[in-house]
Amino acid sequence: MNIDWTAFRQAIDTPKRFVLTSHVRPDCDALGSELGMAAILRQLGKEVMIVNASETPPHLAFIDPSIEIKQLGQDISAEEILDNYDGFMVVDTSAWIQLGEMANVMKAFQGTKLILDHHVSQDDLGGEMFKDPKCEATGRLVYEAAKAWGLEISAETAEVLFTAIATDTGWFRFPSVSGGTYHAIGDLIEAGAVPSKVYANLFEKERIQRVNLRGRILASAKIIHDGKLAYSIATKKDFIDTGASAADTEDAINMTMAVAGVEAAILFVELPTEEGVKASFRSRTKLDVASLAQQFGGGGHVAAAGALLTQPLDEVVPMLLDATEKAMG
């Protein structure tokens, strides 16, 4: 790990009351990392509140059965955070645009500000950065922090961290997986994580709305650039017709990556409840999609990245396809 855990621990020591947050439309790595870090901070005698700009997606609610994760504006106000907390930690992102309304809270926050992340791209969030872009998941970083500080990992914490790592590695099939990944996973299973339970919650309890949206996305799939680039689209009409939400598009892009010969893929999502288009990128070759996404205000990893654009869908699609084809050569 390329993180100084001693320095991170020292940075945590002074604040007594922490707010944890992560990116909009949180995935399991964001949610699991928040819950795992909250458990660690409480072992260190801290009070902790987890607050996100977005609600927890319904299909991921299983990860937080006690509904510990709150939503800004619904469960707590910005003023309450600013008045009552002296520590602010961001996990699993280091980009302003990914924080949503929590970005304004962070900018106004006067206490200690920390960031724990594993993404390549980053903004200056005005806090102390602890980052390892080579790490497969932020959940792994939380696990490593607990081990470095000699803290116990309960069964509940083991399960959320297992979920974080398992999902951010595509259930251990992405190139980011290493021997260290399996050592960590083995530890988490020994601590009480149950892989079969996590898998069932993730993949065997689908909502019909999500299934129908996946069908629309797959039906829209096209292959260009001599069969090397796949792209698909989810429109506002698709969300209306199926009753699905933006969170139901998670991982859909990986289905087009399964097509023989495809080296990269893009999923365009016309956001159903706000203006804009979310573009998700994947690559299995030397194409650096993090650099590609950065051209459009986004970021991420070399093999998986994303961007949020404000232009209409009919402008975004040809613009990003052209940029991607040029990058592929």
DSSP helical segment count: 13
Helix content: 25-40%
CATH level-4 homologous superfamily of the largest domain: inorganic pyrophosphatase (n-terminal core)
Q: How many angstroms does the end-to-end distance come to? A: 34 Å
Q: Which series of helices and strands comes N to C?
A: HEHEEHEHEEHHHHHEEHHEEHEEH
Number of domains: 2
Could you give a short account of the major beta sheet?
Answer: 6 strands, parallel
Q: What is the level-2 CATH architecture name of the largest domain?
A: Alpha-Beta Complex
Apparent shape: globular
Strand content: 15-25%
Structural class, by secondary structure, is alpha/beta
Overall mean pLDDT score? 95
CATH third-level topology of the largest domain: inorganic pyrophosphatase (n-terminal core)
The CATH C-level name of the largest domain is: Alpha Beta
Q: Order of strands in the sheet with the most strands?
A: 3-2-1-4-5-6
Poorly predicted runs = none
Number of strands: 12
Radius of gyration: 19 Å
Question: Can you describe what's shown?
Answer:
The protein is of the alpha/beta class. The protein folds into 2 domains: 5-202, inorganic pyrophosphatase (n-terminal core), CATH 3.90.1640.10; 208-328, Diaminopimelate Epimerase, Chain A, domain 1, CATH 3.10.310. α2 (28-43) packs parallel to α5 (138-148), α2 (28-43) runs antiparallel to α6 and α6 (155-168) packs antiparallel against α7 (179-191). It has helices at 5-13, 28-43, 78-84, 102-108, 138-148, 155-168, 179-191, 195-203, 208-219, 236-242, 253-256, 289-294, 313-328; strands at residues 17-21, 47-52, 69-71, 87-91, 112-117, 128-131, 222-224, 229-234, 264-270, 277-283, 299-300, 304-309. The protein starts with a helix and ends with a helix. Helices cover 40% and strands 18% of the residues. It has a 6-stranded parallel sheet, with helices on one face.
